[in-house]
């Protein structure tokens, strides 16, 4: 079913067996990469799965293979257009027809920047790891919300606190029930994603409900390069290493547009000895523990208690450097 | 055909639709990872493609998914058994039945170490990127050479210099001709790999010719983490950045058994200005150029002319630290 729904999304964007689909995703722990791959394959398209190589090599593959479809994260797409500019590659030098972005949300200014630089449409996919990722919903060429696979999912929009249904056209939490899944059915699964449901038919002719692109969540779950986790996990990891950790902050930001990075600011009780010899090996211990447990590298800094930022945009542990979230020029 | 040949190799190792195949490969620029994946899928096996995550996470996935087959590089397999030891995980805590290794060659002591630690067979796959990777040849459970897909390839063994056929059972260069490929036929393709052909039937019952595992090549092509290149490419990159580069050495080694690393020692003509401001930014420029062009990170050092090592094991530019090539305890 995963493949079928993704095939449908590809088709609604005009992707067919004459396309060359370049997949620039990290294939570790991001199952969506495989869904995008297998669906493109079952469409009969040619695949150029480039995974996590540099933007320069991505552009070389794009030119050598004459890729017509690029699927990647919004951040990496921005990085690729920055590399094009540096290398003097113009949109006309490529054969791209459309760019698909996911699983991270994309802000409209970033999409506009990509569309201006590449001179082609950029379209958004949506998925939920527990259900079908990424074939659950996606934009058609009309860019008028993400078409939801309503034959496979019953969608409701509820109040994120009370759980009661909200009125038509109102913002709330997306709740999904699987209709066709046998081995792993989910009933009224709360996605944690805040959106609006539109039931009017789309100008493209499809009559399925559409959702607004998801830019907010009800909980504090964060996702770095497609790997979702909760700040509580960071807290548990820090305390398992050092009982003297008093507080911490998690900062998620974009460096050079390459992808999301995370930084952990740690404040610890004074005058307690480090669990390892030196400050440097202590920080390295935290770094390697985070990397081994979450599969993500992090910059770790030890700061004074009063140097911790006070309030984050989502909650007190998570800060997103929104102003530079998309490294626009 | 790629998939079919790999399915055949899986079958000869007893892999079937009840297996859970964990693929710990870098999916960037290594097409073999996809072949292994698609073949396992077409067998009906369950897939746990873990790609390039830490050994700790690999072991967690191995335990959570009850993986029965692990396919990875020899170096990473060694790294996984080292992590098992550190974490006190015993072979009986896992459900593995067999480990498949490729595309790098594995030395017998390393294989024995893996088999002792894991208490299961470790089997070798062989492929040629230009033909079928990695389904070209592979060991059966008898471990008596790699069975070659002779219905798809005509194999000859020739003298690596003169090109004349060598006698039966003699060492020489493997030359292959495709028999079934339509879109991309290759006639007498010189693989550059030195091996011996055995035509006697195997004790496993198969009658196809077998080749000895490949441990040497005729040329100076090297491969780091599955990405093949020639030292000449490094030379061209260095000289494109800095015309004052007098000589260089390429050193390939294993660090902590995680995978092959490369180090480039650069000697440059004295008293010429760096093409960038400082020594540090000069080295960073070389590093980033190598990474962008080859898709591989490298350690780069600037050394005096007389500090360059004199002779490498393969040629003067390439040194393999063979003694610690496999990080055995």
Outline of chain A, from the CA principal axes? globular
CATH class wording of the largest domain in chain A? Alpha Beta
Q: Biggest sheet of chain A: strands, sense, closure?
A: 9 strands, mixed
**Class from helix and strand fractions of chain A:** alpha/beta
CATH superfamily of the largest domain in chain A: ANL, N-terminal domain
How are the strands of the biggest sheet of chain A laid out side by side? 2-1-3-4-5-6-7-12-11
The greatest interface between two protein chains, and residues involved on each side, is:
A-B, 21 and 19 residues
DSSP summary: helix tally of chain A? 7
How many strand units of chain A? 19
Q: What is the end-to-end distance of chain A?
A: 41 Å
Radius of gyration based on Cα positions of chain A: 21 Å
Mean pLDDT of chain A: 87
Would you mind describing this structure in some detail?
Two copies of one chain form a homodimer. Chain A is an alpha/beta fold. The first copy, chain A, folds into two domains: 2-219, Rossmann fold (3-Layer(aba) Sandwich); 223-324, GMP Synthetase, Chain A, domain 3 (2-Layer Sandwich). In chain A, 26% of the residues lie in helices and 26% in strands. Chain A contains seven helices and 19 strands. In chain A, the strands form four sheets. Chain A has a nine-stranded mixed beta sheet, sandwiched between helices. In chain A, strands 8-9-10-13 form a four-stranded antiparallel beta sheet, with no helix packed on it. In chain A, strands 18-17-16-19 form a four-stranded mixed beta sheet, covered by helices on one side. In chain A, a hairpin with a 2-residue loop joins β14 and β15. In chain A, α1 (2-12) crosses α2 (31-43). The longest helix of chain A has 16 residues, at 279-294. The radius of gyration of chain A is 21 Å and the shape is globular. In chain A, 40% of the residues are buried. Mean pLDDT of chain A is 87; it is low at 312-316 and 321-329. At the A-B interface, α2, α3 and α7 of A face α2 and α7 of B.
């Amino acid at each position: 079913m995963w493949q079928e729904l993704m095939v449908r999304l590809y088709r609604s964007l005009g992707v067919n067996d004459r396309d060359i689909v370049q997949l620039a995703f990290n294939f570790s722990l991001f199952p969506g990469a495989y869904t995008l791959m297998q669906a493109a394959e079952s469409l009969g398209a040619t695949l150029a799965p480039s995974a996590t190589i540099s933007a320069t090599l991505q552009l070389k593959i794009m030119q050598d293979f004459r890729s017509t479809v690029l699927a990647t994260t919004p951040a990496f797409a921005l990085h690729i257009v920055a590399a094009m500019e540096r290398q003097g590659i113009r949109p006309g030098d490529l054969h791209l027809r459309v760019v698909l972005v996911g699983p991270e949300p994309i802000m409209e200014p970033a999409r506009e920047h990509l569309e201006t630089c590449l001179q082609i449409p950029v379209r958004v996919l949506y998925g939920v790891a527990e259900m079908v990722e990424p074939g659950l919903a996606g934009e058609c060429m009309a860019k008028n919300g993400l078409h939801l696979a309503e034959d496979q999912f019953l969608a409701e929009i509820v109040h994120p606190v009370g759980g009661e249904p909200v009125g038509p056209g109102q913002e709330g939490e997306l709740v999904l029930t699987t209709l066709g899944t046998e081995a792993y059915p989910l009933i009224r699964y709360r996605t944690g994603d805040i959106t609006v449901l539109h039931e009017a038919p789309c100008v493209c002719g499809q009559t399925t409900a559409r959702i607004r692109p998801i830019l907010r969540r009800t909980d504090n779950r964060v996702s770095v390069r497609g790997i979702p986790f909760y700040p509580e996990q960071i807290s548990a990891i820090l305390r398992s290493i050092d009982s003297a950790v008093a507080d911490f902050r998690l900062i998620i930001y974009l460096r050079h547009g390459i992808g999301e990075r995370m930084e952990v600011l740690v404040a610890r009780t004074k005058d307690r000895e480090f669990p390892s010899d030196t400050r440097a090996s202590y920080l390295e211990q935290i770094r390697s523990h985070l990397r081994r447990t979450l599969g993500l590298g992090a910059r770790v800094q030890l700061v004074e208690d009063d140097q911790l930022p006070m309030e984050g945009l989502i909650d007190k542990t998570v800060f997103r450097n929104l102003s530079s979230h998309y490294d626009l020029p």
